Protein backbone atom coordinates (compact mmCIF):
# COMPACT_ATOMS: atom_id res chain seq x y z
CA UNK A 1 0.00 0.00 0.00
CA UNK A 2 1.35 3.44 -0.97
CA UNK A 3 1.41 6.50 1.25
CA UNK A 4 -1.41 8.95 0.62
CA UNK A 5 -1.60 11.47 3.46
CA UNK A 6 -4.85 13.37 3.16
CA UNK A 7 -5.89 11.83 -0.16
CA UNK A 8 -8.91 9.74 -1.01
CA UNK A 9 -8.58 6.11 0.02
CA UNK A 10 -10.00 3.08 -1.77
CA UNK A 11 -12.21 1.05 0.61
CA UNK A 12 -9.56 -1.66 1.01
CA UNK A 13 -6.97 0.97 2.00
CA UNK A 14 -9.02 1.97 5.04
CA UNK A 15 -7.17 -0.01 7.68
CA UNK A 16 -8.54 -1.14 11.03
CA UNK A 17 -12.04 0.25 11.00
CA UNK A 18 -14.03 -2.94 10.44
CA UNK A 19 -15.23 -3.37 14.02
CA UNK A 20 -16.25 0.25 14.26
CA UNK A 21 -18.06 0.03 10.93
CA UNK A 22 -19.90 -3.10 12.08
CA UNK A 23 -20.98 -1.20 15.20
CA UNK A 24 -22.12 1.79 13.14
CA UNK A 25 -24.26 -0.45 10.92
CA UNK A 26 -25.94 -1.88 14.01
CA UNK A 27 -26.64 1.58 15.34
CA UNK A 28 -28.04 2.63 11.98
CA UNK A 29 -30.51 -0.22 12.09
CA UNK A 30 -32.26 1.67 14.88
CA UNK A 31 -31.31 5.36 14.63
CA UNK A 32 -29.33 8.07 12.87
CA UNK A 33 -25.75 8.98 13.71
CA UNK A 34 -23.46 11.90 14.39
CA UNK A 35 -19.79 10.99 13.94
CA UNK A 36 -17.49 13.37 15.74
CA UNK A 37 -13.73 13.33 16.09
CA UNK A 38 -10.62 15.35 15.93
CA UNK A 39 -9.59 16.52 12.47
CA UNK A 40 -7.86 14.01 10.27
CA UNK A 41 -8.80 10.97 12.32
CA UNK A 42 -10.46 9.29 9.38
CA UNK A 43 -14.18 10.10 9.57
CA UNK A 44 -14.60 10.63 5.84
CA UNK A 45 -12.68 7.45 5.04
CA UNK A 46 -15.02 5.50 7.31
CA UNK A 47 -18.26 6.76 5.81
CA UNK A 48 -16.94 6.47 2.27
CA UNK A 49 -16.07 2.86 2.93
CA UNK A 50 -19.57 2.31 4.32
CA UNK A 51 -21.09 3.93 1.24
CA UNK A 52 -19.01 1.72 -1.05
CA UNK A 53 -19.88 -1.43 0.86
CA UNK A 54 -23.46 -1.06 2.13
CA UNK A 55 -25.29 -3.73 4.08
CA UNK A 56 -27.68 -5.93 2.16
CA UNK A 57 -30.86 -4.13 1.08
CA UNK A 58 -29.69 -0.66 2.15
CA UNK A 59 -29.31 2.36 -0.07
CA UNK A 60 -26.48 4.61 1.08
CA UNK A 61 -25.72 8.06 -0.33
CA UNK A 62 -22.59 10.11 0.38
CA UNK A 63 -22.19 13.85 -0.09
CA UNK A 64 -19.59 16.32 1.09
CA UNK A 65 -21.75 19.34 1.91
CA UNK A 66 -18.95 21.62 3.13
CA UNK A 67 -19.20 24.07 0.24
CA UNK A 68 -22.99 24.41 0.23
CA UNK A 69 -24.29 27.79 1.28
CA UNK A 70 -28.08 27.73 0.88
CA UNK A 71 -30.87 25.31 1.71
CA UNK A 72 -31.71 25.06 -2.00
CA UNK A 73 -28.14 23.97 -2.84
CA UNK A 74 -28.49 21.27 -0.21
CA UNK A 75 -31.88 20.13 -1.50
CA UNK A 76 -30.38 20.06 -4.98
CA UNK A 77 -27.72 17.59 -3.85
CA UNK A 78 -30.29 15.32 -2.27
CA UNK A 79 -32.53 15.67 -5.31
CA UNK A 80 -29.67 14.83 -7.72
CA UNK A 81 -28.73 11.75 -5.71
CA UNK A 82 -32.29 10.49 -5.57
CA UNK A 83 -32.94 11.35 -9.21
CA UNK A 84 -29.83 9.40 -10.30
CA UNK A 85 -30.76 6.45 -8.11
CA UNK A 86 -34.37 6.21 -9.23
CA UNK A 87 -33.57 6.85 -12.91
CA UNK A 88 -31.12 3.96 -12.83
CA UNK A 89 -33.98 1.73 -11.75
CA UNK A 90 -36.37 3.36 -14.20
CA UNK A 91 -38.45 4.75 -11.37
CA UNK A 92 -39.89 8.24 -11.24
CA UNK A 93 -40.29 11.04 -8.72
CA UNK A 94 -44.04 11.46 -8.83
CA UNK A 95 -44.57 13.69 -5.80
CA UNK A 96 -41.72 16.05 -6.67
CA UNK A 97 -42.86 16.30 -10.28
CA UNK A 98 -46.46 17.22 -9.38
CA UNK A 99 -45.37 19.79 -6.80
CA UNK A 100 -42.68 21.21 -9.08
CA UNK A 101 -45.20 21.76 -11.87
CA UNK A 102 -47.39 23.73 -9.48
CA UNK A 103 -44.64 26.08 -8.33
CA UNK A 104 -42.27 26.39 -11.29
CA UNK A 105 -44.56 28.24 -13.66
CA UNK A 106 -44.60 25.50 -16.25
CA UNK A 107 -40.87 24.72 -16.31
CA UNK A 108 -40.04 21.04 -16.89
CA UNK A 109 -38.41 19.18 -14.02
CA UNK A 110 -34.73 18.66 -14.84
CA UNK A 111 -31.79 17.30 -12.92
CA UNK A 112 -31.14 20.72 -11.37
CA UNK A 113 -33.76 22.64 -9.42
CA UNK A 114 -33.99 26.27 -10.58
CA UNK A 115 -33.50 29.22 -8.23
CA UNK A 116 -37.17 30.18 -8.72
CA UNK A 117 -38.27 27.29 -6.51
CA UNK A 118 -35.95 28.30 -3.63
CA UNK A 119 -38.84 29.39 -1.35
CA UNK A 120 -40.21 25.83 -1.58
CA UNK A 121 -37.01 24.04 -0.56
CA UNK A 122 -38.61 22.36 2.45
CA UNK A 123 -41.46 20.82 0.51
CA UNK A 124 -39.13 19.77 -2.29
CA UNK A 125 -36.81 18.06 0.18
CA UNK A 126 -39.69 16.29 1.87
CA UNK A 127 -41.23 15.11 -1.38
CA UNK A 128 -37.86 13.98 -2.76
CA UNK A 129 -37.27 11.78 0.24
CA UNK A 130 -40.86 10.55 0.27
CA UNK A 131 -40.53 9.55 -3.41
CA UNK A 132 -37.40 7.59 -2.57
CA UNK A 133 -38.81 6.00 0.55
CA UNK A 134 -41.87 4.80 -1.34
CA UNK A 135 -39.68 2.82 -3.71
CA UNK A 136 -36.99 1.60 -1.33
CA UNK A 137 -38.05 -0.98 1.20
CA UNK A 138 -34.74 -1.28 3.06
CA UNK A 139 -32.95 1.41 5.00
CA UNK A 140 -32.07 4.67 3.26
CA UNK A 141 -28.91 6.25 4.65
CA UNK A 142 -27.81 9.76 3.72
CA UNK A 143 -24.22 10.48 4.80
CA UNK A 144 -23.59 14.22 4.84
CA UNK A 145 -19.95 14.96 5.47
CA UNK A 146 -19.08 18.34 7.02
CA UNK A 147 -22.70 19.07 7.91
CA UNK A 148 -21.77 21.58 10.67
CA UNK A 149 -19.80 23.56 8.11
CA UNK A 150 -22.81 23.78 5.80
CA UNK A 151 -25.03 24.96 8.66
CA UNK A 152 -22.43 27.53 9.60
CA UNK A 153 -22.29 28.75 6.00
CA UNK A 154 -26.07 29.09 5.85
CA UNK A 155 -26.08 30.91 9.15
CA UNK A 156 -23.38 33.35 8.05
CA UNK A 157 -24.59 33.95 4.46
CA UNK A 158 -28.33 33.69 4.97
CA UNK A 159 -29.65 33.76 8.49
CA UNK A 160 -29.67 31.99 11.83
CA UNK A 161 -33.29 31.05 11.37
CA UNK A 162 -32.68 29.31 8.04
CA UNK A 163 -29.97 27.15 9.60
CA UNK A 164 -32.42 26.24 12.35
CA UNK A 165 -35.08 25.38 9.81
CA UNK A 166 -32.71 23.00 8.02
CA UNK A 167 -32.03 21.16 11.27
CA UNK A 168 -35.71 21.06 12.14
CA UNK A 169 -36.83 19.75 8.75
CA UNK A 170 -34.22 17.01 8.85
CA UNK A 171 -35.35 16.00 12.30
CA UNK A 172 -38.99 15.91 11.30
CA UNK A 173 -38.14 13.82 8.21
CA UNK A 174 -36.34 11.33 10.45
CA UNK A 175 -39.44 11.12 12.55
CA UNK A 176 -41.84 10.82 9.65
CA UNK A 177 -40.04 8.18 7.58
CA UNK A 178 -39.21 5.07 9.58
CA UNK A 179 -36.58 3.65 7.20
CA UNK A 180 -34.70 6.95 6.81
CA UNK A 181 -31.31 7.41 8.50
CA UNK A 182 -28.83 10.27 8.41
CA UNK A 183 -25.15 10.35 9.24
CA UNK A 184 -23.68 13.77 10.02
CA UNK A 185 -19.92 14.06 10.18
CA UNK A 186 -17.70 17.01 10.63
CA UNK A 187 -14.60 18.32 12.20
CA UNK A 188 -16.20 21.39 13.73
CA UNK A 189 -18.54 20.44 16.51
CA UNK A 190 -22.21 20.66 15.74
CA UNK A 191 -22.52 21.83 19.36
CA UNK A 192 -20.85 25.14 18.46
CA UNK A 193 -23.31 25.79 15.66
CA UNK A 194 -26.30 24.80 17.78
CA UNK A 195 -25.04 26.76 20.81
CA UNK A 196 -24.88 29.90 18.73
CA UNK A 197 -28.33 29.29 17.33
CA UNK A 198 -29.57 28.89 20.90
CA UNK A 199 -28.17 32.29 21.75
CA UNK A 200 -30.56 33.69 19.18
CA UNK A 201 -33.60 31.95 20.58
CA UNK A 202 -33.55 28.48 19.06
CA UNK A 203 -35.09 26.18 21.66
CA UNK A 204 -35.18 22.79 19.93
CA UNK A 205 -32.80 19.89 20.38
CA UNK A 206 -32.42 19.02 16.72
CA UNK A 207 -30.12 16.02 17.06
CA UNK A 208 -31.24 14.47 20.33
CA UNK A 209 -32.71 11.52 18.42
CA UNK A 210 -29.29 10.75 16.87
CA UNK A 211 -26.56 8.56 18.33
CA UNK A 212 -23.28 10.41 18.83
CA UNK A 213 -20.21 8.30 18.20
CA UNK A 214 -16.75 9.64 18.86
CA UNK A 215 -14.19 8.17 16.45
CA UNK A 216 -10.88 7.36 18.13
CA UNK A 217 -7.52 7.02 16.43
CA UNK A 218 -6.62 3.48 15.34
CA UNK A 219 -6.04 0.75 17.90
CA UNK A 220 -2.28 0.20 18.35
CA UNK A 221 -2.38 -3.14 16.55
CA UNK A 222 -4.14 -1.56 13.53
CA UNK A 223 -1.85 1.46 13.55
CA UNK A 224 1.16 -0.92 13.46
CA UNK A 225 -0.51 -2.87 10.67
CA UNK A 226 -1.02 0.33 8.65
CA UNK A 227 2.60 1.43 9.20
CA UNK A 228 3.87 -2.00 8.14
CA UNK A 229 1.72 -2.04 5.02
CA UNK A 230 3.00 1.41 4.05
CA UNK A 231 6.65 0.52 4.75
CA UNK A 232 6.26 -2.54 2.55
CA UNK A 233 4.27 -0.71 -0.14
CA UNK A 234 6.92 1.99 -0.37
CA UNK A 235 9.68 -0.65 -0.36
CA UNK A 236 11.42 0.86 2.61
CA UNK A 237 13.87 -1.80 3.68
CA UNK A 238 14.63 -1.96 7.39
CA UNK A 239 16.11 -4.55 9.71
CA UNK A 240 12.91 -5.12 11.64
CA UNK A 241 9.77 -3.84 9.95
CA UNK A 242 7.59 -4.63 12.99
CA UNK A 243 9.72 -2.68 15.42
CA UNK A 244 9.87 0.36 13.17
CA UNK A 245 6.12 0.16 12.48
CA UNK A 246 5.40 0.18 16.21
CA UNK A 247 7.77 3.11 16.74
CA UNK A 248 5.88 5.05 14.06
CA UNK A 249 2.44 4.17 15.45
CA UNK A 250 3.39 5.13 18.99
CA UNK A 251 5.16 8.33 17.96
CA UNK A 252 1.97 9.70 16.40
CA UNK A 253 -0.63 8.45 18.88
CA UNK A 254 -1.96 6.03 16.24
CA UNK A 255 -3.40 8.80 14.03
CA UNK A 256 -3.52 7.19 10.57
CA UNK A 257 -2.98 10.53 8.80
CA UNK A 258 0.34 11.12 10.58
CA UNK A 259 1.41 7.50 9.99
CA UNK A 260 1.05 8.14 6.26
CA UNK A 261 3.09 11.32 6.67
CA UNK A 262 5.92 9.70 8.63
CA UNK A 263 6.31 6.84 6.16
CA UNK A 264 6.16 9.37 3.34
CA UNK A 265 9.02 11.30 4.93
CA UNK A 266 11.02 8.09 5.48
CA UNK A 267 10.62 7.35 1.79
CA UNK A 268 12.55 10.47 0.79
CA UNK A 269 15.42 10.27 3.24
CA UNK A 270 18.89 8.77 2.88
CA UNK A 271 19.44 8.53 6.63
CA UNK A 272 19.19 5.12 8.36
CA UNK A 273 15.51 4.43 8.94
CA UNK A 274 15.36 3.95 12.67
CA UNK A 275 13.07 4.85 15.57
CA UNK A 276 15.37 7.84 16.21
CA UNK A 277 14.75 9.13 12.73
CA UNK A 278 10.99 8.67 13.24
CA UNK A 279 11.23 10.78 16.41
CA UNK A 280 13.15 13.43 14.48
CA UNK A 281 10.58 13.51 11.68
CA UNK A 282 7.75 13.91 14.18
CA UNK A 283 9.56 16.69 16.00
CA UNK A 284 10.25 18.58 12.77
CA UNK A 285 6.69 18.11 11.56
CA UNK A 286 5.30 19.59 14.76
CA UNK A 287 7.10 22.85 13.92
CA UNK A 288 6.68 22.66 10.17
CA UNK A 289 6.13 26.14 8.68
CA UNK A 290 4.26 24.66 5.76
CA UNK A 291 1.75 23.11 8.22
CA UNK A 292 1.75 19.82 6.29
CA UNK A 293 0.33 17.99 9.30
CA UNK A 294 -2.52 20.47 9.41
CA UNK A 295 -1.95 21.27 13.10
CA UNK A 296 -2.42 25.02 12.89
CA UNK A 297 -6.19 24.62 13.03
CA UNK A 298 -5.92 23.68 16.71
CA UNK A 299 -4.98 27.28 17.38
CA UNK A 300 -6.92 29.03 14.62
CA UNK A 301 -10.31 27.57 15.39
CA UNK A 302 -10.24 28.89 18.94
CA UNK A 303 -10.70 32.35 17.47
CA UNK A 304 -13.56 31.11 15.33
CA UNK A 305 -15.57 29.19 17.89
CA UNK A 306 -14.86 30.87 21.21
CA UNK A 307 -15.92 34.40 22.04
CA UNK A 308 -13.40 37.23 22.43
CA UNK A 309 -13.94 37.08 26.20
CA UNK A 310 -13.40 33.32 26.35
CA UNK A 311 -10.33 33.17 24.13
CA UNK A 312 -7.65 34.33 26.64
CA UNK A 313 -8.97 31.91 29.23
CA UNK A 314 -9.09 29.02 26.76
CA UNK A 315 -5.52 29.73 25.68
CA UNK A 316 -4.45 29.98 29.32
CA UNK A 317 -6.02 26.62 30.15
CA UNK A 318 -4.38 24.92 27.18
CA UNK A 319 -0.99 26.52 27.90
CA UNK A 320 -1.11 25.30 31.50
CA UNK A 321 -2.20 21.79 30.58
CA UNK A 322 0.42 21.61 27.84
CA UNK A 323 3.20 22.75 30.15
CA UNK A 324 2.46 20.41 33.02
CA UNK A 325 3.99 16.98 33.23
CA UNK A 326 1.05 15.70 35.26
CA UNK A 327 -2.71 16.04 34.78
CA UNK A 328 -4.35 18.79 36.85
CA UNK A 329 -7.40 19.06 39.07
CA UNK A 330 -9.70 22.05 38.53
CA UNK A 331 -8.38 23.57 41.78
CA UNK A 332 -4.77 23.22 40.63
CA UNK A 333 -5.61 24.68 37.27
CA UNK A 334 -7.28 27.67 38.91
CA UNK A 335 -4.22 28.28 41.06
CA UNK A 336 -1.99 28.25 38.03
CA UNK A 337 -4.28 30.47 36.00
CA UNK A 338 -4.17 33.05 38.73
CA UNK A 339 -7.36 34.68 37.54
CA UNK A 340 -7.98 37.24 40.29
CA UNK A 341 -7.61 40.18 37.93
CA UNK A 342 -10.13 38.77 35.48
CA UNK A 343 -12.88 37.55 37.81
CA UNK A 344 -13.24 38.75 41.38
CA UNK A 345 -15.68 36.08 42.60
CA UNK A 346 -13.91 32.75 43.20
CA UNK A 347 -17.04 30.68 42.47
CA UNK A 348 -17.72 32.56 39.24
CA UNK A 349 -14.09 32.02 38.35
CA UNK A 350 -14.34 28.26 38.88
CA UNK A 351 -17.61 28.13 36.95
CA UNK A 352 -16.18 30.01 33.96
CA UNK A 353 -13.22 27.63 33.79
CA UNK A 354 -15.45 24.57 34.26
CA UNK A 355 -17.65 25.64 31.35
CA UNK A 356 -14.64 26.08 29.07
CA UNK A 357 -13.16 22.76 30.18
CA UNK A 358 -16.41 21.09 29.13
CA UNK A 359 -16.25 22.73 25.73
CA UNK A 360 -12.59 21.83 25.29
CA UNK A 361 -13.50 18.22 26.05
CA UNK A 362 -16.23 18.27 23.42
CA UNK A 363 -13.72 19.77 21.01
CA UNK A 364 -11.32 16.88 21.64
CA UNK A 365 -8.49 18.98 23.05
CA UNK A 366 -8.60 17.54 26.54
CA UNK A 367 -10.06 14.70 28.61
CA UNK A 368 -11.10 14.40 32.21
CA UNK A 369 -9.74 11.27 33.84
CA UNK A 370 -11.58 9.07 36.39
CA UNK A 371 -9.66 10.83 39.22
CA UNK A 372 -11.14 14.17 37.97
CA UNK A 373 -7.85 15.52 36.64
CA UNK A 374 -7.63 17.12 33.21
CA UNK A 375 -5.01 16.49 30.56
CA UNK A 376 -4.51 16.89 26.83
CA UNK A 377 -6.33 14.11 24.99
CA UNK A 378 -3.39 13.35 22.68
CA UNK A 379 0.26 13.55 23.67
CA UNK A 380 1.16 14.60 20.14
CA UNK A 381 -1.15 17.61 20.23
CA UNK A 382 0.16 18.50 23.69
CA UNK A 383 3.70 18.57 22.28
CA UNK A 384 2.54 20.71 19.39
CA UNK A 385 0.97 23.13 21.84
CA UNK A 386 4.10 23.20 24.00
CA UNK A 387 6.31 23.94 21.00
CA UNK A 388 4.10 26.83 19.88
CA UNK A 389 4.47 28.36 23.33
CA UNK A 390 8.25 28.13 23.54
N1 LIG B 1 -8.39 3.83 8.40
C1 LIG B 1 -7.40 4.43 7.72
N2 LIG B 1 -6.44 3.69 7.11
C2 LIG B 1 -5.46 4.29 6.43
N3 LIG B 1 -5.30 5.61 6.33
C3 LIG B 1 -6.22 6.39 6.90
C4 LIG B 1 -7.32 5.85 7.62
N4 LIG B 1 -8.07 6.86 8.09
C5 LIG B 1 -7.48 8.00 7.70
N5 LIG B 1 -6.35 7.73 6.97
C6 LIG B 1 -5.40 8.74 6.46
O1 LIG B 1 -5.77 9.98 7.03
C7 LIG B 1 -6.18 10.90 5.99
C8 LIG B 1 -7.36 11.70 6.49
O2 LIG B 1 -8.50 10.87 6.63
P1 LIG B 1 -9.98 11.44 6.49
O3 LIG B 1 -10.04 12.44 5.41
O4 LIG B 1 -10.88 10.27 6.42
O5 LIG B 1 -10.10 12.16 7.91
P2 LIG B 1 -11.23 13.11 8.43
O6 LIG B 1 -11.42 12.77 9.87
O7 LIG B 1 -12.41 13.05 7.55
O8 LIG B 1 -10.50 14.53 8.31
P3 LIG B 1 -11.15 16.01 8.32
O9 LIG B 1 -11.57 16.25 9.71
O10 LIG B 1 -10.03 16.90 7.90
O11 LIG B 1 -12.30 15.98 7.37
C9 LIG B 1 -6.48 10.01 4.79
O12 LIG B 1 -6.27 10.71 3.58
C10 LIG B 1 -5.44 8.92 4.95
O13 LIG B 1 -4.17 9.39 4.55
MG1 LIG C 1 -13.35 14.56 6.48
- Strand order across the largest sheet: 2-3-4-1-5
H/E order of the elements?
HEHEHHHEHHEHEHHHHHHHHEEH
Q: What is the architecture of the largest domain at the second tier of CATH?
A: 3-Layer(aba) Sandwich
Overall pLDDT = 92
Question: How many distinct folded domains?
Answer: 3
Per DSSP E runs of 2 or more residues, the count of β-strands stands at: 7
Number of helices: 17
Globally, the shape reads: globular
CATH homologous superfamily title of the largest domain: P-loop containing nucleotide triphosphate hydrolases
Beta-strand percent range? 5-15%
- Assigned CATH class of the largest domain: Alpha Beta
Biggest sheet features: 5 strands, parallel
Bound small molecules, which ones? adenosine-5'-triphosphate, magnesium ion
Q: Stretches where pLDDT falls below 50 for ≥5 residues?
A: none
- Spatial gap, N to C terminus: 38 Å
What share of the residues lie within helices? Answer: 40-55%
Rg, Å, rounded: 24 Å
CATH topology of the largest domain: Rossmann fold
**Class by alpha and beta content:** alpha/beta
Short key terms for the protein model shown above:
binds magnesium ion, alpha/beta, 54% helix, Arc Repressor Mutant, subunit A, 390 residues, binds adenosine-5'-triphosphate, 7 strands
Amino acid sequence: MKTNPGGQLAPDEVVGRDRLIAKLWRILERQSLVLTAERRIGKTSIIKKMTAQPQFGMRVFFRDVEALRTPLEFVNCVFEDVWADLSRKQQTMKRVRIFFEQVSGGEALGVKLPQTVAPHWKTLLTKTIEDLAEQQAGLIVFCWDEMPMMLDNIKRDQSESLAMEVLDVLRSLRQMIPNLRMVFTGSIGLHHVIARLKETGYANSPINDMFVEDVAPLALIDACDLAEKLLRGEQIRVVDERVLAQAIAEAVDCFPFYIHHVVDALKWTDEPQTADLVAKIVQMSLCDDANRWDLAHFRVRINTYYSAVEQPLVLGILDELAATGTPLLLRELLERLNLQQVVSEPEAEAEAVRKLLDLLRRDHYIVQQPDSTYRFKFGLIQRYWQLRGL
